[in-house]
Amino acid sequence: MTSPVLTRRRWKLYAHGQHIVIARGQRERITHPLLKAFLWALYLPQYPQITVEVPVPDRYKPDVVAFDPARTLFTHQPVFWGEAGQVSADKVAALVRRYPDTHFAIAKWDTPLSSVRPWVEEALRGVRRRAPVDLLNVPDACAERIDADGHIHITFDDVERLCL
């Protein structure tokens, strides 16, 4: 059963002792904000300052992002950048070159990673990176991973994950 929290336009969600508010756009499919919430919850233990929909000094805007205050002061680069749902190959190619020390995660809803991997690998070809790029396939069943109180109960065991 889908959480009643998800019937609202704004969701207050909880994971790992923190909370976040995610707004669902008027014409936005439910899978996009769900992917943002799941990226936030999955990577929160690794990046405690992770947040959603915060602009960065770049022409592109991340869906989910984390900054390391000490590192960001000098580089203005995020330590984590998450993309939820549709993302263009051109955007990925530009970002992985521009931010070689940023951990990237691209999450897709119920999409075989075999359809995503080739164009991401092409974007990475010839790029010297010092941080990983993760591809995540979030199955339809994960919609049930948010309880009636807005607590997200998802782990990497619940999704298909490929680290490049």
Q: What's the CATH class label? A: Alpha Beta
Global mean pLDDT? 94
Largest sheet: 6 strands, mixed
Q: What is the global morphology?
A: globular
Number of extended strands = 8
Poorly predicted ranges: none
User: What CATH architecture label applies?
Assistant: Roll
Strand order of the largest sheet: 3-4-5-6-7-8
Which class best fits the helix and strand makeup? alpha/beta
How much of the sequence lies in strands comes to 15-25%
CATH topology: Restriction endonuclease-like alpha-beta roll fold
Rg calculated over all Cα atoms? 15 Å
State the fourth-level CATH superfamily.
Restriction endonuclease-like alpha-beta roll domain
Percent range of helical residues: 10-25%
Measured between the Cα atoms of the first and last residue, the distance is 34 Å
What does the model show?
With 164 residues, the protein is α/β, with parallel strands linked by helices. It has one domain (4-163): Restriction endonuclease-like alpha-beta roll domain (Restriction endonuclease-like alpha-beta roll fold). It is built from four helices and eight strands; from the N terminus they run E-E-H-E-E-H-E-H-E-H-E-E. It has helices at residues 31-43, 69-75, 89-98, 117-124, and strands at 10-15, 18-23, 51-52, 64-66, 80-84, 103-109, 133-138, 160-163. It starts with 9 loop residues before the first strand and ends with a strand. The mean pLDDT is 94.
